[in-house]
Amino acid sequence: MKKILLLLCLFLGMQTYAQDEMRELTTVIKVTPSSSERFDVAQLQLELNGQGMPENGFVWDATSSSFKGKLSYNPYEDNFIRLYMPDQSISYEGPIVFDFGNPEITTVEVNADFSPYHYVSFTSGSPEDYTVTLDYLGLSDGSASGQSMPGVVTQRMDDGEFLRAEEYSYELSAFTPEGISVAVKNGKVTVEDEDVAVVTPEKLDDMTLVTFQVKDAEGKPAEAEVILLQANLDLSTDEQGSVQGYLQPGTYYYYPEMEGNYLALPATDFATFTASGNTTTVDYSFQDKGYKPVTFRMEGDVQSGSLTISPVGMQYDEFYVNNIDFPYTVYMVDGLYKYGVQPAYNPPMYFEAEHGLVNTAESRDVVCSFHSSDYGTMRFKLKGAEEGHYYGIHVRRGKDGWSTGFNQIDGEDGFSGMWVAELGLKTGSYTYALERQDYATQQVDFLTLGSFDMEEQQEVEIDLSKVESVPVEVSVANLPDFMEGRSFTCEVSTPRGENLWQFRLERGETTFQTRLPEGEYVFNWTCYSSYSGEDNVEFDYVTHETVEGVSDKVVLDFSRLAYARVRTVVPDGLEADYCNVQWRRFHHRDRLRGQWYGNLCHTCPRPIWHTGHGFEL
Length: 617
Hints:
By secondary structure, the chain is mainly β.
C-alpha cells in the first residue's frame, strides 16, 4: 500500500511540475512571400500540430502578413507548424524553436521565408499536339539539395517545381492525346530571381512517326521494351508487337529487350534505323537475330533452384533467374557461355552449384546432375561457446562457398556445452572459417581458420579455449578533402580466396574492430561517390596485410595514394554510362586491381566524359 501511495504522489508531483512548466505565449507566424506568380498568400493554409484553421485559434492579419494566435508550450514536446499551398507544391514545416527558459520572452515569432523560391514550369510548345510531364529535376552538378527542419519544403509537380537560385538538370516525357510518346529534349535551366518557363521547341510537323514491329524467337508478335540510345522515348510494344513514337529525323541506335527468358545481346551489337519523312517502320525479329531455345535440365534429387548465364569474356552475370523449376528454356544467340546452376536447399544437403560452359552453336541441351548419394554430411562441433553471440561456419572449395549457423544441442540433463552445425558436401578438400558475432555490439570476429578432406573425415571439433585470435583495428587515415563525406566498404579475405567478412564505414566513421587468427589477409577497399561532378571518385584498392602479435592495426593510408582522372571520347550519337579501366601493377605486398568499372559524368564539354580514380604512389 505504501508503494502505491508513493507512486501516486510521484505521478501527481510530475503533473504539478508539468503544469508549472506550461507557458501560453502569443505566437506570430510571419510570411515572407515568394514573388512567383504561382504563389498566392491568400491561399496559404496553416496547421498547428495537425489541426487546421479556425480550430487552432489562429487568424490571418493581412496588414502584417502574419498568422497570429496563442499557443501553449512546455519543454518536453514541440509544437509542429505546417504552412502550405493547397496544391502541396511548397510549404514551411517544422517545430517552433525558441528559448523556452527565458522568462522575458512573451511573444514567439516564426519567419516563414518563401522569398528565395521561384517556380520553374515546363510546358508543351505544341499543346494541341502533345503534353509534357516533368520526370526529374535536380542540381546539375548532381549534389543533393537538402531541405532542413524547420524550413521550406518543395514538392515536384507534373509541370514544374519551386526552386532556389541555381542551375538544374531536367528530364521530360511527352505524349500525344492518343498516347504516342514524343521525343523531347532534356536539358538544363538556370533559376535566378524570377519564375522560369521552359517551353519545348519540338513540333510534330517536323518529326517522323516511327512504328516498331517486334517478333520473338518463334517469329510471333512480341511484347518488348525498345531501348533508344539517343532519345528519351517510352516504347513498350503491345500484344501485337507494335509501338509508335515521334522522333526527329536522323539515324538512331536501338535494341529491344524481352522480359523473361531472353538473354540480351552484347551491348556492342546495336541495331540502327533512319527516321525520315513523315513515317518510318522498323522491323525487328529475335528469330532473325539468331535467337534459339537452350534448355537447362536437372537430374537427381532436386528439380528447382537458380540459373545464371553470361557470355564468355563478360565479368558479371548477364542473366539470372531464381526459384524456378527445371527444365528451363532460355533464348540465346549462338556463342560460348558460362553458366551456373544452384539447386534449391534440401536439408541437410547444401548441393554445390554446378558451373560449366556451353557452346550453343553445337548444343542446346544442358544437363546437370545432383544426387544425394554423391554427398556426405560434415558435422562441426563447437565447445566453449558463449551466450549472447552468434556462431557460424563458412566453408569454401575453390570459388564456391557455403555457410550455416551453430545450434546448441541438449544433453541428458537438459543442457549441453556442445554446439553443432552440419553441411552436406561432396568428397574433396575444403577450407573453413569460424565466425562469432556479438549481439550487443554487432562486432564480427573470426576465431580460427582450418581445412579438412571429406574423404578422410566427416567431423571437425573446435575448442574455443584452445583457439587464438588477434584483436585488429581497421581504420582510414589522412583522408583528403575531396574524399570527405563518403562511405567505405572493406572486404576481408584470405590469400586462398576465402571471403570472410564485409564491413561498411558510413560517412564520418573511420575505424572498426574485429579479431582474426594470425596470418596474412587481403583487405579490399571500395568507395563510391555520393555526388557526380568534378570530384566524382570511384575507389577500389587492395592491400595484403599480416596480422600477428597481441594486437594489430590495419590502416588505409591515403598519403600513399594519388588521384588520376580518366577521360574517354564518346562517338557522335551515343552516350557513355560507365568506363572500364584496366591496368596491372604489383608492388611486393600491395597491388591495385586489374579491372575497374566507374560511372561517368559530363561536367566538361561533350563528347569528353571523365571520372576519377586513386592510384598508389
